[in-house]
Design brief:
This protein is α/β, with parallel strands linked by helices. Helices cover 35% and strands 21% of the residues.
Length: 562
């Protein structure tokens, strides 16, 4: 068990910033049309202390579960602090969940109170269907919440005196539950203590030399462990400024406003950035300019400035594998993406590419105090200071996910090189068998396909068939061009070439028989993607199951779905 000083627990660290930097800006919240509200450390503390005092009047048992349903915003941070200061446990729900999942999570954790935050009208209408009535479970609305018939945050904090003293906690007190997005079955509640969220934060601060001068943009879902750690926990510890994104439409301007020094994203967004650059400056021209010494530095600076990433000193990618070619492209642009690997179950504190020590196709080395090894079946096993307390209310599943010697079973297959770097080769449960009796790992093949600039996502399948196949979703910027003369034919030829190139890089038994260009857009709301943009294989494969026989019978190399 990792030792950690009381002063290094996250909200104890936050108290120290309140004492030493009371009037400095901590959180920058966009409100409307580019306007922002700045919250100082003192203001954030006062808001949290007032809400904590109100929660105390509700008479909940210690360590009760309190839900937050909100997109990223300053009041999410304030609310989590308030819940902790009142001695309770936070349960954050994704702001795009279906009603049945909302109902399950709120019931499973026995939420005593629900904070409703910044939400879009469509998802909010769906979420409400899964919520208990306000009479059963009281609600409180954040300032940016949709219209909610319940007390508002401002009305409560304006009439409630703050806590008289600063509450302290012990490292092993429960802090939060993350309900895993998962690709199948009901979500599991990953329970963390203050120890298991604070120790990884301290480790990352030391490794990346995070200071109060850093800046970050919070936009990946805070309900997920990744941004909770990288935005909230890291800033509570180091006291650097956090900016929030207003909306998807304003994301680029939000980045420009924040000019982050720390920026982490998911592979899909790194690809979208690249495609956005190519739409303004075609790849061949950009490659040419980057080879000209006089122009190269100017172009690199202009591209990164246009993305709002010119001040970044640490850039990362996580949540899913990123193609090695995409990493090399950004490195050539002057941005070294350090790939991270982790799970909700170890609060993301597992592996990271260390600067100057990366290897193409490999995630990187374990963080400090992290041990790793492979099982006989090739499954990655990890022991980390961030390892969860367990799955909430599920001792059986908790026991199943640990080895006898205390290593967490990740469910991922991998390889470890002679320098200790980890390479992920796929999910243990994602392997499927073709009719020839050979097992295929789809993820590495998808990485080859997804590296093509025309493709946004792909799913490789073929269980029970003699050949594998891939269903692909074209990059969004190509869709308006498909009706233009010759464009479809040009893309078909390019995809036939991609098919041949991909098959040349993989084993004979893995080779793809054909590619299918789907007309569908896979979305979180449609159940095709997890909230962190990972593909849900089951729902996507079920979507196309009725068409498989026709596809295999066609004999075509590239099929355009009707």
């Amino acid at each position: 068990m990792s030792e950690i000083a009381s002063s290094d627990l996250l909200h104890h660290r936050f108290y120290s910033h309140v004492d030493g930097r009371a009037n400095e800006t901590y959180l920058v919240q966009p409100t409307n049309g580019g306007q922002t509200t700045n919250y100082t450390f003192a203001q954030v503390y006062e808001q949290a202390a007032r809400m904590a005092a109100h929660i105390n009047t509700l008479g909940f048992e210690p360590q009760s579960k309190i839900a937050i349903i909100s997109k990223n915003c300053a009041h999410f941070f304030m609310c989590e602090l308030a819940i902790w200061m009142a001695g309770h446990v936070t349960v954050a729900l994704y702001p795009t969940l279906a009603a049945d999942t909302v109902e399950y999570i709120l019931g499973h954790c026995e939420a005593k109170l629900i904070f409703v935050g910044k939400l879009d009208e469509g998802p909010w209408a769906e979420i409400q269907k899964g919520m208990p009535s306000a009479e059963e479970t009281p609600r409180i609305a954040f300032p940016l919440a949709p219209k909610v018939d319940s007390p508002s945050w401002d009305s409560i904090t304006s009439t409630t005196e703050p806590l008289a003293e600063r509450p302290q906690v012990s490292p092993d007190d429960e802090a939060l539950i993350i309900y895993t997005s998962g690709s199948t079955g009901q979500p599991k509640g990953v329970l963390h203590s203050f120890r298991t969220i604070s120790a990884p934060t301290l480790g990352l601060v030391k490794m990346l030399s995070i200071t109060k001068q850093d800046r970050a943009l919070s936009y990946l879902p805070l309900a997920h462990g990744m941004d909770r750690w990288l935005s909230e926990c890291l800033s509570l510890y180091s006291g650097h400024t956090i900016y929030f994104a207003e909306s998807l439409a304003t994301f680029v301007s939000d980045l420009g406003r924040a000019r982050p020094t720390i920026f982490v994203s998911v592979p899909r967004l790194w690809l979208k950035f690249q495609l956005g650059i190519f739409s303004k400056l075609p790849k061949k021209r950009l490659d040419l300019f980057l080879k000209i010494p006089i122009l190269s530095g100017i172009i690199k600076k202009k591209v990164l400035s246009g993305l709002g990433l010119d001040s970044v000193r640490f850039a990362g990618s996580g949540s899913a594998p990123i193609p090695a070619e995409l990493l090399a492209w950004y490195r050539n642009l002057g941005l070294e993406l350090l790939e991270g690997y982790g799970m909700s179950e170890n609060f993301n504190y597992s592996h990271i590419t260390k600067p100057g020590r990366g290897r193409a196709g490999y995630i990187g080395h374990p963080y400090d105090e992290v041990e790793h090894k492979l099982s006989d079946a090739g499954e990655i096993l990890v022991k980390s200071p961030g390892t969860m307390v367990g799955y909430y209310k599920d001792a059986e599943k908790t026991a199943e996910c640990f080895t006898e010697d205390g290593f967490l079973r990740t469910g991922d297959r991998g390889e470890i090189d002679s320098d200790g770097r980890l390479r992920i080769t796929g999910r243990v449960k994602e392997l499927f068998k073709t009719s020839k009796g050979k097992y295929v790992a789809p993820a590495p093949i998808e990485n080859h396909i997804n590296n093509d600039e025309r493709i946004e996502l792909s799913v490789v399948a073929g269980s029970g068939h003699p050949k594998t196949h891939a269903v692909i979703q074209l990059a969004e910027d190509l869709l308006p061009k498909l009706g233009q003369p010759g464009v479809k034919e040009e893309i078909t030829a390019a995809l036939e070439k991609l098919l041949a190139e991909t098959n040349g890089k993989i084993e004979e038994f893995e080779r793809l028989g054909f590619l299918v260009v789907t007309k569908d857009r896979w979305t979180i709301e449609g159940g095709h993607l997890t909230p962190t943009q990972k593909i849900r294989r089951g729902p996507i494969e079920d979507l196309y199951a009725p068409k498989l026989d026709g596809w295999y019978a066609s004999g075509s190399k590239v099929i355009w779905e009707d």
